[in-house]
Amino acid sequence: MVFDCDGTLMDTERHWQDARDLTLRSHGLRAAPGFADRAKGLHYAECGRLMAEEAGRPELAGRLTDALLTGFRTLVAAQPTTMPGAPELVAHAAKFAPLAVASNCPADVVEACLAGAGLLSYFDHLVVPGGTVRPKPAPDVYLTAARLCGVDPARSLAVEDTACGVEAALRAGLRVMGVGPWPGEEVAARVDLWVDRLDDPDVFAWACRRVAQALEG
């Protein structure tokens, strides 16, 4: 199983939102209507570029990106919180499947979040963009995670909370379980299952069944 981190394992999407708001305000800028939805799940550098372009100040992309990441690091370090059901699902899945994290966040942020939540030791691999590995929605982080776990992507299950992440996982050939607020029919129709929370009573049975079937071939 390959998990996204922000908004899937860790309750950090609110920190990204707060960091975006703080960054824009500190530069005297405002987000365009619907910006939060467009930015959700993007790599932080792409988010900084989008903020700058939509504000009509493309030359500020680098500064906004740096400020965004700094603000996020500060906020998330102060309050690492797991999403409901995430620790239980991870602990259970680790008993019968190799686990990995595929995230658009910097590696040190992912490691710090998971370590603070007591989850880091469950994962065999953490994959983030860098070098030839492109950020989501490219499939690279999921393809790399499956390869490192020694499992065919078609025999792997991704757990995602954003359209950007779902796109990456599907392009890599993984099955997908989506979690979080209802994403709309278009996104929901592309995944195997969409649930509000990972502590949904059906999640454990479904995820375990899918992974067990995949590992059996």
What report would you give on this structure?
The chain is of the alpha/beta class. It folds into 2 domains: 2-11 and 81-216, Rossmann fold; 13-78, DNA polymerase, domain 1, CATH 1.10.150. It is built from 10 helices and 6 strands. The protein has helices spanning 13-26, 35-39, 44-54, 61-78, 86-93, 107-116, 140-149, 163-172, 185-188, 201-216, and strands spanning 2-3, 100-102, 125-127, 157-160, 175-179, 193-195. A 6-stranded parallel β-sheet has the order 3-2-1-4-5-6, with helices on both faces. Strand 4 (157-160), helix 8 (163-172) and strand 5 (175-179) form a beta-alpha-beta unit. Helix 1 crosses helix 4 (61-78) and helix 3 crosses helix 4 (61-78). The two termini are 15 Å apart. The model has no long low-confidence stretch (mean pLDDT 90).
Share in helix: 40-55%
Return the CATH topology of the largest domain.
Rossmann fold
Low-pLDDT regions: none
Main CATH class of the largest domain: Alpha Beta
User: What is the oligomeric state here?
Assistant: single chain
Count of discrete alpha- or pi-helical segments spanning 4 or more residues = 10
Strand content: 5-15%
The CATH superfamily label of the largest domain reads: HAD superfamily/HAD-like
Q: Return Rg in Å.
A: 17 Å
Q: Major sheet: order of its strands?
A: 3-2-1-4-5-6
Query: What is the structural class?
Result: alpha/beta
The CATH architecture classification of the largest domain is 3-Layer(aba) Sandwich
- Terminal-residue CA separation: 15 Å
Number of strands: 6
Shape: globular
Could you report the average pLDDT, rounded to the nearest whole number? 90
Structural domains: how many: 2
Helix-strand string: EHHHHHEHEHEHEHEH
